[in-house]
Amino acid sequence: MTRYVKNVWYMAAWADEIAGDTLFSRTLLGKPWLIWRNGDGTHAMIADRCPHRFVPLSMGKRVGDTVQCRYHGLGFDGTGTCVHSPFPDGPPAHVSAPAMPIVEKHRGLWFWPGDPALADPSKIPDFSFLDADRGMHRGCLRIEGNYELITDNLMDLTHAEFLHIETFGVNGSIFHGEQTVRQDEDGAIWNNWDMTDAQAPEWSKPMLEPGQKIDQWLHMRWHAPAAMALTVGLARAGTQRADLILPPMVNPHIITPETETSSHYFYDHEDNPQAAEMARRVFVEEDEPMIEAAQRALGAQDFWDARPAILKTDAGAIRARRALMQRRNAEGGAAA
Ligand code: FES
Ligand SMILES: [Fe+2]
Questions:
Q1: What is the pLDDT of residues 138-171, one digit of tens each?
Q2: 193 C-alpha vs ligand 2 centroid, how far in Å?
Q3: Strand partners, 41
Q4: CA angle (329 as vertex; 326, 334 as ends), nearest 5
Q5: Are residues 31 and 93 both part of a single domain?
Q6: Is residue 24 a contact partner of residue 17, using CB atoms and an 8 Å limit?
Q7: Which of 47, 56, 164, 297 has an alpha carbon within 20 to 30 A of 308's alpha carbon?
Q8: Is the CB of 53 under 6 A from ligand 1?
Q9: Distance from C-alpha of 256 to C-alpha of 228, rounded to nearest angstrom
């Protein structure tokens, strides 16, 4: 059984998924959680399971900054404390629901399943590029695959040359590109591909003069547990990346385990029908079936027990897996 790393920030939702007085329920790290927005704009996150007879509290109703269970009327505040009982002897002191710290940052809601005393919001990875109003559509895709299989996918973009050949393919240039894997002072692991004087990918040709060669870079940054950002740059070859064909684009690829074998994938794309269709093809038609097929093939077997063949191009993905394993081992605690 996988243990989830606990002392780390995970993304629960985009902030705008929790509108108004919504009682928002999502399964995260194997359990259902309830999130709501308090009157002062902060958020609360408690187990979506009444401690009395286990029904989802999300079936209940908001009463100010509390939730009232629909079954027998107990009320809970954002710390999970039972603060209301319909009976005259007051709320039972021995009844409470688990709660977790949750904060809004970079348009996301981030929760901390570990020791609340260690929950420092400054440790949320830097996704400040999401703060600007770039007119993006933000989405969340559910994939029937373990979150580390999705990290493998994102930290090894060589698959673009096969799986995304018609959408995001790099026209074979990645096979002649230079891969660099490094860890920065922030603890992030970078898996960078830099292609010089390469054939332009098909999708970029309408923006180029015939036969124009390009320099292209694909830089993927990973933070534990699976919060990634991809920067894509494209410039006319021989210009030291000064003559950009497009402004470099950076997009989030943030993965949170739903269960051991399913994940929530938070992404964005430009808010127009063409970009939506492209995202649907890349994520839903191309990546999702492949990740789900890998998960089905692996079944309940541990990744390392399955003795995966490791290629040189897996360097970034394997380094991310090792970094996460070190954290898991350091925490050492009980199974999640
Ligand atoms: S099940 Fe919630 S109050 Fe009884
Ligand atoms: Fe992909």
A1: 999 999 999 999 999 999 999 998 999 888 777 7
A2: 15
A3: none
A4: 145
A5: yes
A6: yes
A7: 164
A8: yes
A9: 11
Domain that holds residue 293: 130-331
Mean pLDDT of 305-323: 97
216's CB contacts (< 8 A; 6+ apart) are: 170, 173, 177, 194, 195, 198, 201, 232, 233, 234, 235
The CATH number of the domain where 283 resides is what?
3.90.380.10
Answer yes or no: is the C-beta of 69 below 6 A from any ligand 1 atom. Answer: yes
Of 124, 158, 173, the residue at which a domain comes to its end is: 124
β-pairing, 75-76 with 82-84? antiparallel
Q: pLDDT tens digits, residue range 65-120?
A: 999 999 999 999 999 999 999 999 999 999 999 999 999 999 999 999 999 999 99
pTM (predicted TM-score): 0.95
Q: In what order do the strands lie in the sheet with 108-111?
A: 10-14, 108-111, 102-105
CA of 72 to the centre of ligand 1 (A): 5
User: Lowest mean pLDDT: which of 58-62, 77-81, 177-181, 243-247?
Assistant: 243-247
Q: Judge if 88 and 177 occupy the same domain.
A: no
